[in-house]
């Protein structure tokens, strides 16, 4: 199921996303260029990643970020993730 996606908005590449299998889940990653953040793109991409993973039979997605990355933490929190923090490391689990 490992896959990398290009995020395109108005015929312009604005970022990338990926799904990468791990031992017991699939890790999701989303990167959006600074000039395109705050427009709801991450929410749409996360929804797409969840749908793809669920169709592949995955039961949960994981994600990691840093405590300073408030945008990623907000996206994960709004997406319903269970979030834990250990110092500067933040981990999230999203049930599907």
Automatic annotation (TrEMBL):
Coiled-coil residue spans: none
Keyword vocabulary terms for this entry: Transferase
Matches recorded under InterPro entries: Acyl_CoA_acyltransferase, GNAT_dom
Location of the N-acetyltransferase domain: 1-96
Gene3D superfamilies: 3.40.630.30
GO molecular function: acyltransferase activity, transferring groups other than amino-acyl groups
CDD domains, alphabetized: NAT_SF
Name this protein carries in UniProt: RimJ/RimL family protein N-acetyltransferase
Species annotation: Halosaccharopolyspora lacisalsi
Lineage of producing organism: Bacteria, Bacillati, Actinomycetota, Actinomycetes, Pseudonocardiales
């Amino acid at each position: 199921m490992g896959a990398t996606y290009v995020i395109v908005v108005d015929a312009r590449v604005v970022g990338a996303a990926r799904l990468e299998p791990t031992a017991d889940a699939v890790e999701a990653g989303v990167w959006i260029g600074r000039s395109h953040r705050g427009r709801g793109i991450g929410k749409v991409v996360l929804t797409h990643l969840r749908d793809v993973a669920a169709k592949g039979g995955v039961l949960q997605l994981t994600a990691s970020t840093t405590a300073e990355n408030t945008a990623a933490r907000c996206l994960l929190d709004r997406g319903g993730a269970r979030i834990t923090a250990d110092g500067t490391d933040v981990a999230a689990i999203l049930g599907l």
